[in-house]
Fold these 2 entries.
Entry 1:
Amino acid sequence: MKYMLLIYADPVGFAALKPAEAQAAMAAYEAFTTALENEKVLIHSERLRPTSEATTIHVENGKNKVLNGPYVETKEQLGGYFVIEAPDLDAALKWAARCPGSHHGTIEVRPVWKM
Amino acid sequence: MRERDALVGKTAEAVARSSYGKLIAFLAARSRDVAGAEDALSEAFASALARWPKDGIPDNPEAWLLAAARRKSIDAHRRRKRSEGASDHLKIMADELATANDNTVPDKRLLLMFACAHPAVDEAIRAPLILQTVLGFDAATIASAFLIAPASMGQRLVRAKAKIRGAAIPFRLPEPDELRERLDAVLDAIYAAYTEGWSDPAATDMHRRELAGEAIWLGRLVCASLPGEPEALGLLALMLHCEARHDARRDRDGEFVPLAEQNNDLWNSAMIDEAEMHLRRAAEMRAIGRFQLEAAVQSAHAVRRTSGRADWRAILTLYDALWDLTRSPVVAINRAVAIAEIEGAQEGLAVLEAQARDKRLLQYQPYWAARAELLSRIGRIAEATEAYVQAIGLETDPAVRRFLQRKRAALGSDRGVC
């Protein structure tokens, strides 16, 4: 089973970190990613740039409606994701709990639609 | 022929009762497709009813049904071979066919219960889902027991099963570090089923009456499967204690009889003794929990059988511990009542009133009934009458409502003397 771990966190928190703290936070993510790789669980992962750089588009009657900003304006924003391979939900949740994002934010675990 | 049909019907019904959950659990354990297992099994039952009158009842009806359900399930997946995951599914089924022993169906019902009570499943639907999948209750029956519209109950059950399958919630015992917490969810669901059944002690609604018995059966199943879990034993003891009073809770006219006024000769001694045995075993494991404490409270009421009076000091100690553990408003009320029994109505009332800062209590019938009782004991009749009016307004069980109305009317006659 493929699962996507979507990391929702308040970007203000990270921005307020001192350089050393920010470095430690990044190191925690690197360690988590290495663990996923070592266990051959990781399929793909990205960190997303802040929602201030987001743009939405919706096509209606052939017209592109382009707007500045994220789809939903909330305090906690999608900041990155991991796609992993896990045998079942419990295994996926276990990985999600190890992800630093589950401590400074919240992780949504979504099964990936099998095509 | 008609006799034979009746026998077939009876046998099918008996197998349905004893094997339904076992067959669903086994059929769905690897695919996690509970809805698919239900469909296959119901088709298997239909062909049993068609075939058995002609071919005779098989020696092992359970194995027959399992084989038939598997064929139906394989057919169903061949039909939608192109859809997601069908080939995985067929492989799983082929593996199972190769490894399964024809005569015994491995019992995976406990694993099914853990899947249904998984934290990823909506808490409110866990008990109904267990009742449906492990016991084979239909959605309409469960809906009537839980006082939910059948259509919406059906929808929520479908959604929960889709979640189990789609998110791949496993059918397996939780890891040791998670077992206690997950088991709590299973026990909560069983207790929810029990209390839904218990709330209709007059058994006017057969579905509800059955619910209590089936919940006890599930409790036994968990205890048998996890004999080292004190809270599972505590829950079983609690349900048995409550069930033991079944015949005493209503008088001959079907009117409500409160615990304090029950004739304890009508209590079921065998059930109480069994409850006590489970509770002692649980206590030996030295890990106290909510269900053990609640069962112990019932046990302290049950000593009335021998001493003539409930052990109120023990009850108070137990409610103190329960209060520390749960902070439940229900516990707060019962604690105040216990204090009233030991120190007097005035003291009990003071504790009760202090608790009423929790506004949840004001929506809760037992708060007003307890308040009314304590007020009447100290002669504050007008306020007691008011409290009974509130209690009557909040009560949904007609028999309990009539009981409260009688209590209120009795106050009125006292006042008439003045």
Entry 2:
Amino acid sequence: MAAALWLALGLPALAALAARLTPRAAGAVAVAGAALGAVPAILLVVAAAGGERARTGFAWLPASPELDVGLRLDPLSALMAVTVALIGLVVVLYSAGYFASSPRRPSALAGLLAFLAAMQGLVLADDFLTLLIFWELVGALSARLIAWNRAEPRAPEGAVRAFFTTRTADIGLYLAVLALFAGTGALAFGTERPEGALGALVGLGLVAAAIGKSAQVPVQNWLAGAMRGPTPVSALLHSATMVAAGVYLLVRSESLLAGWPLALAGWVGAITAVVGAVIALGENDLKRLLAGSTASQLGLMFVGAAVGGPAVAIFHLVAHAAAKAGLFLATGQFQHNRETTNLEELRGAGRDDPAAFACFALCAASIAAVPPFAAFWSKEHIAAAAEAEVAWFVLVLLAAAGSAAYMLRPALVLWPVGEAARAGAARVGEVARAGRGAMLAGAGILAAASAVLGLAGEPLADLLKGGELPSSTLSLALSLLALAAGFAGAVLGRRPARSLVEAARRGLYIEEAQRALVVRPALLAARASGRLDDRVVDRAVDGIARGGLAAARRERRLEERGIDAAVDGLARLVARGGQSNRRLQTGRLHEYLRDTVAGLAGVALVILVAAIT
Amino acid sequence: MISLPVVLGVAALLFAVGVYGVLSQTNTIMVIMGVELMLGAAMLNVVGFLRYSWPEAASGSFFVLVIMTVMAVEAAVGFALVVTVFRHRRTAELDDLTGLGD
């Protein structure tokens, strides 16, 4: 199985390279690569179901055997790997169509595949060192994907914000890993949290890293900024990869987080579930609405990880991944048709493109927790598990009502009931026709998955040894009530209070708070240090420069007086010699002859003297 | 046969007469003739040494013949120059011909 582990991560990476090198056939190469990459992932999950466990790796530092880099096969890693691989395959298939008319298609497809490879490494990692390496790779490659669209002037901003937010939270992971190593001397999964301050650092750091990657309160805003990326990228980032990494980290390090860190994660998740729902209710852009929804659903997963255990959280992760990816893929279809994601301008877009709308509706029903779709079951388990903690239970039910409302609202806009279809309204455009088959196929597969994945709960729990999935009549009844309330609110067109909507649009003023508490002080400090720089450092540097100039000038004067004077003197000497020689030149032949004879006589004398002596 | 010192002595005498002529005469033609005398002295030396060192070698005689031809050419050119200068300046005195000094 070791080969399958390496292949699951290596094949997408190779496919990324191949897609880049064969620009003409990039679409086929990328889809083939993603499909081949899914094969070892499926083999892994089959092997894991058969009870097989495997580890493979090599020494990172030969001198420290505890610092190994390796991959592992266990139920959790296999399940995550197969989710990532299959969602990735569908998104790549869709992207081959989505980017059909873009000259930079190979770059986009290669970026998606490379990102998939990094994510596979993250979920298959055997210890915290390997996890950290791929964690960083996922962050860096996601920024590249978000910034892919050069025509979108605000894409780099979104990419930088996503990168910096997750990067800042990653400091927590670094601290946690270092503290873990200091406390236990190893980086393996499944150890106990060390005692005292080191243990606190491990707990806080891991939760902070999960919050950052999964866009929980208070840093949920990077997710909306990441919407500037192409829609398939959003689909991938928001479903099985990137944001899922935070939940995966919580589940993977459950033994390290037992106690207050998990409670902290649960509180953050419960609050984010409601905050995200409010944001989604207030947004007027379909993609940003879905971003708010993602934060909310991930908050529910945090609650599930805190009270329900791995199986509850991972079940919701899988169900949400399929539905959310499907929603984004359908949204991309509408975006191609109308060239916008603004909800008002998309009015009636579903009626123009019924196939895409059908996919959208199925996935939205799943997210809204309409029985019997997948997310209904997974959310019900979370609610049942949260019953033990009344505050979380209330927040989860509020989020459930919110999700019902914020999913019905765009559906009603896309297919306005009771409004006649506009005559001559925009049909499927020229741009949209290219690659339409691949796009619809991708969205359709995910919609079908959203419809049937509800059956996967029990086998999944068996696989993860999570025991019985929690379930109760009370939570079931209250969930259905919340669903009905949410739908009623959306149908009646009751929007939340204007101030709430405004707050949601501004990310609940969390961004403003961050700006006031972090950005402005940082800018002030920067300006102060800039002034210090101007006044003290620059002056010193200027002084040094002035000193250098003065020294140079002195040097020059020395040169003029010394070296130049010597050269001039030599020239004068030669000139004087020439002047005096000129006097010999009289033109009288007799004088020349006299001098010649005298010279010859002198030479003869010398020879004579030499001969005698 | 005349001995070598005698030949060398005659040549030295001839050379001295030539030097005296070059230094004492003021007429250009006389100076040129002094130069000819010195060349003749040098030639006499060459012939003398050849005769006593390599009596069988014919190349020395040819060398002397070449020098004699050069002397004749030189005298002809020199005299032609002097005649031309005389026509222009109405004088052939060396001390009047100092135009190269300026």
